[in-house]
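User: When convenient, might I ask for sequence and structure tokens for a protein?

AI:
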Amino acid sequence: MNQAVRFNSSDKKEKQFVMDLRKRVNDYFKSNQISPKANTAMVFKTIILINSYLLPFLAILLIPMNIWIAGLSCIIMGFGIAGIGMGVMHDACHGAYSRRNWVNHLLAGSLYLLGSNVLNWKIQHNVLHHTYTNLSGLDEDIDDKGPIRLSENKPVKWFHRYQFIYAFAFYGLMTLTMLTNDFTRLYKYHKAGLVKSQNKKMGIEFTKMMARKIIYLAAIFGLPLWLTDYTWWQILIGFFVMHWTASIILSFVFQMAHVVEGAEQPVTDPLIPTEWSVHQLHTTSDFARNNKFISWYVGGLNFQIEHHLFPNICHIHYSKLAPIVEQTAREYGIHYNLKPSFRSALLSHIYRLKELGKIKKIGSSLT
């Protein structure tokens, strides 16, 4: 994996945009005398989201209930997992939750409730996705997902014409595949030198990941087998329902930020003739900014432009930063991609899946 990609523009206007935007955002926090990290509302939100996963699980273990109520509890757990991932873990992994590293480290570990691995996530998301957004061959978020083509710079197959129909079934497998794919992904990152770049050692990280996954599976399967009367296959179905629910939610939110109309997918070249911040605006979209529940539940990921520009700022502030970013972008003639509602963003993603099922364009890819 060659990451020799630089962002550099000869357009002085773009450079001035970056400086003005940073100044205006910094001025917002200074003038209001507030921290860019989590506040009291964020702490309460964290407690609610974590309990939305733990309490249904404890209820299943400790309170006799019929299979249908248990199934509903598994769905609620799926919503809880997705909420924790978007609204707690995500900020913590970016160091945006707190100025105290131990707090970020502790809350980043909430990803283990999903059975996944924090180091892999940080490399894939913080390093690759945020640095090389929508660049084929570097941003794994737009790699092919099984039979789903998400990049116009990847080969198109005959079956891709139907992906706007079947994609959502495969989206539901995302977190389940992470349980096993984490091992091959860690090895790939090790070979690329990315594990070492995080000051980690492959052997130690592999051992820790294996131990955590065994503990996770022992808890999620072993405790219900021990403490309840459910059969192994009923527990397996509940496990699948929980993960499928979480995966669908997470996939929808992720795809509606970068695989929609207006989100560019530049050809991956050693030099991208655009300032990095401007590239983020070109490749990213906001959606449903005025929907307070969605903004609360998805951890501000519907303010994806603001998140990509300022990943070290807690998402609790994005609703205030969005008008600043949008106004500054318009002043400099830079397109600000905004889908007004969840529905419009979802329809835009479906339309984009249709387009990607037909587009023949294949650009160069860095290897």
